[in-house]
Each structure stands twice: as C-alpha cells, then as structure tokens.
Amino acid sequence: MRYRNLEECILDLEKHGHLIRIHEEVDPNLEMAAIHLKVYAAGGPALLFENVKGSKYRAVSNLFGTMERSKFIFRDTLESVQEVIGLRNDPMKALKSPFKYVGTGLSASKALPIKKSGVPAGFEEIQISDMPLIKSWPMDGGAFVTLPQVYSEDPEKPGIMNSNLGMYRVQISGNEYELNKEVGVHYQIHRGIGVHQHKANKLGKPLKVSCFIGGPPSHTLSAVMPLPEGMSELTFAGLLGGRNFRYSYEEGYCVSHDADFVITGEIYPDETKPEGPFGDHLGYYSLTHPFPMMRVHKVYARKNAIFPFTVVGRPPQEDTSFGALIHELTGSAIRQEIPGAKEVHAIDAAGVHPLLFAIGSERYTPYQQVKQPAEILTIANRILGTGQLSLAKYLFITAEEKQPVTTHHIEEFLMYILERIDLHRDIHFQTNTTIDTLDYSGTGLNTGSKVIFAAVGDKKRELCAEVPKPLKSLPGFEKASMIMPGIAAIQGPAFTSYADAQRQMDELSAAIREQGDLSSCPMIILCNDSEFMSETLNNFLWAAFTRSNPSHDIYGVNSYYEHKHWGCDNVIIDARTKPHQAPPLIPDPDVEEDIQRFFQPGGVLSGITN
C-alpha cells in the first residue's frame, strides 16, 4: 500500500486484523502509555484511542510494534527501497544488470519532494493544548511528542534538499514552558539540527523549525533512518512510502501537506530552558537539563487529525522494531561506510548505544596466521568515530575467520570473544570522551569513556558452565551465580564512592587470587542483585552495560599497567547502581490497577495479554 496519510494506514491495518479501536475515554496522563506498554509486551495490535480525555483528536500507538506489522505497512516498497540503497552504495550493479534494476528507476521517481502552494485545504490553526498531551512515566516533566519529525534547513544553503528531518523529542507542556507559546527541543550530539543551529547562531539569526507529527508511516520512519551520506530523509520518505513528499512554505516555515499536525517556530541563539525528566530508551529517566527552547509561531492540524505516539523505556519496546527494520533496509551500507567491517550490531537489550558487537577483516598480513588483533583495531577506531556509533561505550570486535560467527547470536558471539581474548593485551580504553547524552553512567552530560574488547585466532580457554569454586566463598561478597558460560555475577555491598569501590575491588581481587586459577571465567560482574543479573541474558545486557563507565568501573584480578597499557587475568565490571546515575523507570501502581478494566473479560483488550 502507498498511503497518502495516516488514516489510510490505520484503516488498512484494521481491515487486516492489525489494529483495535478503544472507544472508552482514556486519560493521556499515564493511562494511554500504560495500556500501550502492556499491549506491546504481549505482541499485540496497533491501538487507536478514539476518546482521548481533554482533546478532540484521536491518537494511535504501536503501529510498528512487531516486525510483521512493520513489514506489512511497507510491503509494496521494501524491496525496491533496498535496491535503491544498494545502488547508492554500489552503482555498478545497475550497469552490470540493467534490466534487473528498471523498477528501481521507477521507485526513485517518487523520491523528489513536490512543492505546493499555501496551507493545505482542510488544515486548521490550533493551539498546542488542543492536542493530546501524553505523559508516559510518573516522573516525566510534562507531555512529550514521542514520534516527532523535526525539520530544519541549512541557514547557509536554504531549501528542501539541504534540510534535516530528525526524531528529536519535543516537550510540549510542563517545566517552565509557557503552554501554547514555548516547547522544548531535545537533540543530542551528532545530530543534523545541531549543525543547522550552529550555523544560525554564527549568523546571529534564529533557526526556523517545523515539527511534523503523523502523516504516512514512511515519514515517521525516515526521521530515524541512518541514511548514507547525501541521501535526504525526505527523498527516502518518498521512496519508502511510494509517494513524493508534499510541502509548501508558509511565512518562511516548511509545512508538510501530509502531516496530521505541524508545529512551526524559531530557536534563538543561546536560548534554552530546562527540559525533562523523560523516561528514555535506556530504561531510566534522562534528567532535567537546559536544551533549546522553540518559540511557537503557528500550529496546524488537518481535519480529523490523528496523533501518533509511542512509549520508550527499558528495551525491548516499539523502537526495537524500528531498529530491526532499519537494519534490514540499510545493513549493507555499513560495509561501504566502514571498509573492512562485515557486521556492526548495536545491542537493543543494552539500550543500543552502550554496547556494540562487530566483525571485521584481518588482511594486514595475509601471508601469516593471525595471532593478535591488528586490522580490527583500526576498524574499531573507525566504528567509534562514525556518526551515532561514536556514542558507544563497549565495543566487542572479532575477525571474520574460518569458523562462522555472527553478531546477532548474542551469547555465542560473547563466548567466541571470551574464548579467544588475551586479557593482558586485547583491552583498549578511550577515556574522557563522548558518550550518549541519555547515559548517566559517565562523568557528566555527554562525557564518559569507551573500551574495546578485541579477539582473534584460536581458542585460549574453555569457559566455565558452573560457578567456579573461587567465587563461592569471598568475604563481603555473596550469591555468586552464572550469567552464561565464562561470565559470573557476584553480589556486593551498595556502592558509596569510587574511593570505597577501589578498596573493595582490591580486596575482591586479592581474595580471588588467593583462591587459585580462575582462567575459565574471564569476566565477573559485581552487582546489587546477582539473582536479577543472572535471571535472563537481557537482564545482564541491560544492567551491566547501562550501569558502568569503562574507565571507572572496570577492574581486574592481578591488574597492572605496562607502558600505559592496562591488562589483567580476569575482568571485573562494577555494575552496581551509583548515586549519580538516573533512576530506573517504574510504572505507577495505581494506574496499572486502573487500566486492568481494559484487559478483563468483556474489555476491549480482553485476551491480548494471556
């Protein structure tokens, strides 16, 4: 289907059993989000809320809640889009097989945006307060637009083809914002809008911004696509939707003719207001910080507009399906952008940015057997210097060798690394550098450290499948349990300070050393709750890598420095919660109890969570 608007998509999903309408009034303050979370967790359908308390507009969520539904939405265009992206990376394909790619040219004809005139017929001017003001988590600072398409243009090269469309969260109520007149625009480092604002600031001019909400699903997905250099998000929206992006300018602001809502306004140089807290995709609240404030100019809504939203939180969530679809569309592009890289996988269960797995090539000395990481270290540095991949904290990388291995079998990949890594040689730190804005494990906003675990060659050890004896009787540490082969969890006292942590780690390392050889367990996780940490692989991936800063929280048994390189016999990661870290997301129990009415026998969502 090539949807002209969001309503056409909703009707198509409903016709094919992918959507349920909720007629009963639902409160946008926590209730809608709580319902969404339960339905998503059950692999349930998209939800159309037809009676949103305090607003005349409907709202829809969970459109991309399953990979099956995402592929269904784009069933008529996925293959051609993959071919266009493939040609963008390797144009020789079309020259070698010209008849095979005839259809690709037809698809590409939908890429160029089409300029119209005036505000679209049927659009009305409204206020921010007329929209559904959806608050997802109890400690959120107010209502947020969670699926915005934030549009800006290069002030030095204005025009649609020099624009950026990004999904930067937009706070529309709460904090110090004057309702209907001011909204917060939260964007992180390495974002296109930041380049535009920097240029506008140098010129001493405000940056004109438009926030599109809704429209065909292709527009929403395009706002989060990591596209190859030179490919516009708006051309991609046309490709994926099979329909050209339509727009006009009104008083100097770009207006999408297909959106359900459009907020226009200006961001002035050095004008910020506190934004947040916000329950974010790492599973914690991102806290209150100054971010750009946009002065609202005008707000438009199409007749019978529908407000799309999602809820982010500890993975997996709906944005997990986003990520899976994006990887399927653009997975081959990484090989073009980072020569020698075969796979790069951002681990969703760890909150995406904290943990990367990668496979590269080892071609430096093809006349010799590979004995230690060489080219993959160059590739690792290239990965950590590329776009949003540069926000990663932990990178585990190995080489493509005779034994097949893939980054998408998480436990097997980690075992492959741990069987081969030389802990005296193959751990490489980068300190005092940038990390994800939303990650509070570091030393400040956007600041922290990174570490590369690199391994190649033959197996060096057999990994333990049971808790090694030396970990069962450690003074001050208890409840040792296995997470997976080669990785054990132990429970320790609550974290108080890094000075105390260093002392505790010295004692722990000494106690382990006295117990004897522990080579079969190269990684030990110190935590607050070893039962939770080892209960599921996802618990380990989430808690270990979102709660640790490599430079501060990695210790080792028999650790030492030699010529400024750090090594050890066993790695210890201190994944205890720290006082400076953000609080985890916890649902409101009263709201959880109240929404049960939708899921009980006779309720509109009865049977979905069974």
Tell me about the biggest sheet? 9 strands, antiparallel
Residue fraction in strands: 25-35%
**Into which percent range does the helicity of residues fall?**
25-40%
Instruction: Give me the number of helical elements.
Output: 19
The number of E-state strands comes to 30
Low-confidence stretches: 91-102
Please tell me how large the radius of gyration is.
25 Å
**Straight-line distance between termini:** 31 Å
Secondary-structure-derived class: alpha+beta
Shape, per Cα inertia axes = globular
Mean pLDDT figure: 91
What does the model show?
The protein has 610 residues and is α+β, with helices and mostly antiparallel strands. Strands 5, 6, 7, 8, 9, 10, 11, 14 and 17 form a 9-stranded antiparallel β-sheet that branches. It has a 5-stranded mixed β-sheet with strand order 19-20-21-23-22, with helices on both faces. The radius of gyration is 25 Å and the shape is globular. Helix 4 crosses helix 6. It contains 19 helices and 30 strands.
Q: What key phrases describe this protein's structure?
A:
610 residues, alpha+beta, 9-stranded antiparallel β-sheet, 5-stranded mixed β-sheet, 30 strands
